[in-house]
Amino acid sequence: MTIEKIKNKVHAGQRLTAEDGLALFKSHDLLTLGRMASEAAQKKNGNKVYFVQNMHINPTNICVNRCTFCAFSKSKGEDGAYEMSLDDILARARTAGESVREFHIVSGLHPDLPFEWYLDMLRTLRKEFPSVHLKAFTAVEIDYLAKIAGLGLRETLLELKEAGLGSLPGGGAEIFDTPTRNTLCAEKISGARWLEVIEAAHSAGLKSNATMLYGHIETYEHRIDHLVRLRELQDRTNGFQAFIPLSFHSQNTEIKKSAYTTGFDDLKTLALSRLMLDNFDHIKAYWVMLGEKIAQVSLSFGVDDLDGTVVEERITRAAGGATDGSMTRDELLHLIRQAGKTPVERDTIYREIKVWG
Ligand code: SF4
Q1: Protein residue closest via CA to atom 2 of ligand 1
Q2: Which is the closest atom of ligand 1 to the Cα of 141?
Q3: Which residues, 6 or more positions from 219, have their beta carbon under 8 angstroms from its beta carbon?
Q4: For FRET with 248, which of 12, 222, 286, 331 sits at 20 to 30 Å CA-CA?
Q5: Residue 228 is part of which domain span?
């Protein structure tokens, strides 16, 4: 399929095949790809670019899995290992200020904390911050919590929801291809299990995002396979809100690479995601991993969401992320406006809080 034919399909609103996606990945015509993705994004969200005032909280980096690509995790007792008490978590949440709309909470898989601790954490946060949305737990954590709770997936999710869980951030997807996943994170749940957990979450009434870690040892074919599997699940559940490609950072990991993903590859991946995932409303540029400048340019390559203020993200920084993991609302507004877009402050489930002129 030539790019010209794919362009006609995009124009006509037709779904792209895996072969189309692969042809686009192999092309170097980045600007044509960007124009197609922009057209698709405009049809979905007009000129709007969303962001949320949020805070990341990573209660512990102690993890029973030690994925080879992960620079964040530590074993219990290892130098640099930490765990926050509920009081620590509350103290951190209190620094977020009145305008915060979302706490984004993900951790390692702690060997000792009981299921009840996680329920307490949600209840405690919900009690003190009733208007802040709790977006928490990767599918990997949900699978682990179900195991330590001795419950089925649905029961686990319903208990967490009852305690205050509002939605899932969509992490832990990495790359679904089994041999590649086994090299990256052999102990982690399979791609099929990730999809099963998310399907259960959607059916329990919890929305989620979806992620893909790229730029390590995967191929373009693996990326396309990942996108197609997400698209198929979305056709069944319509529970995904945003797709977030995560560019790999290798520092302090066991995956040795001399460079990060390139700007060209980042933009191509974001644009292609917009084109392949025709049933996702939003494509998010996670500036913590991409850097602010590429994230801003991506607003002309199909992206309509810049995540949020974040406030001290630890996971990417452990792997040598280029940013300090925090941005003010005014800095986000500046980036969006300079790209000729309309900033829209949102909550976690994309209700508009304020359209900034
Ligand atoms: S990626 Fe997640 S599951 Fe894997 S080692 Fe890091 S914290 Fe643990």
Answers
A1: 108
A2: 3
A3: none
A4: 331
A5: 34-355
Q: What is the pLDDT of residues 74-110, one digit of tens each?
A: 999 999 999 999 999 999 999 998 899 999 999 999 9
| Of 65, 105, 182, 184, best ligand 1 pocket probe by most atoms within 8 Å of the beta carbon | 65
Q: β-strand 342-346 against 240-247: which pairing, if any? A: unpaired
The residues lining ligand 1, judged by C-beta closer than 6 Å to any ligand atom, are 63, 65-67, 70, 72-73, 108-109, 140, 185, 188
Give the predicted TM-score (pTM) of the model.
Answer: 0.94
Flag whether pLDDT at 63 surpasses 70: yes
Q: Is residue 27 part of a domain?
A: no
Q: For 248-274, how does the pLDDT look when each residue is reduced to its tens digit (9 = 90+)?
A: 887 767 776 655 689 999 999 999 999
Query: Which distant-in-sequence residues (6+ apart) come within 8 Å of 170 by Cβ?
Result: 138, 139, 198, 208, 209, 210, 211, 240, 242, 244
DSSP state of 254: S
